[in-house]
Amino acid sequence: MGNSDFILKQHVESGLFLKAKSWVVYNGYRASGSSILPTPRPDRVRFGYLGRITPIKGIDLLLAAFNRLNEPDTQLLIAGEGNERYLHKLKKLVSSTKVQYLGYVKPEDLFNQINVLVVPSLWNEPLARVVYEAYGHGIPVITSDRGGLPEIVEEGRTGFVFDPEKPLALVSKMKKFIEDKSLPGRMRKDCLRKAQDFLPEKIVENYIEVFQAAVNKHLN
């Protein structure tokens, strides 16, 4: 059992649990109803990043893509903590008032300020919680195609997936939201729907199904 298809495949390719039945059970998350606010100004695109400030998270890539956009009314909010030396390097990479470093903030505090979350990870994320946290607040997501990320994104409905090895791939996905500023609002319903897959009660049901199947197999 794994929390993503990616994790299950990694186990099998390593020669583990070859005779076991495979199950995917996601991790759970529920957004507080009081923290789900309307999508920010539809006439402005605010991209956001939430997570550790470290090279494997692809923040350099995100900053380079944002810099290429060269859009006057577009902002990037970066939330999270990390190595101060690396953070200083990032601030020098793109020196613009359109990029704000917020430090540590509660997820809902960021989601209530942005239209789109970007998860540009360069490593194979097993199942990035931040993606379905964003869904729980009605926020679409742009993710890299690493690890379990692409399997929880419905392309064109809850977000977009890009290949970080292609220099302009992230730029083109971000441009979709700039060229059609109503897109985040239209995707909101599908994001909130997708968030239902990760509700704690849904996850409990999935675990019960796994345990019941194991019991039935043992009894038979």
TrEMBL record:
It comes from the Bacteria. InterPro entries: Glyco_trans_1. Residues 43-189 form the Glycosyl transferase family domain. It holds the Pfam family Glycos_transf_1. PANTHER family: GLYCOSYLTRANSFERASE, SPORE COAT PROTEIN SA. This is Glycosyl transferase family 1 domain-containing protein. It comes from Desulfuromonas versatilis.
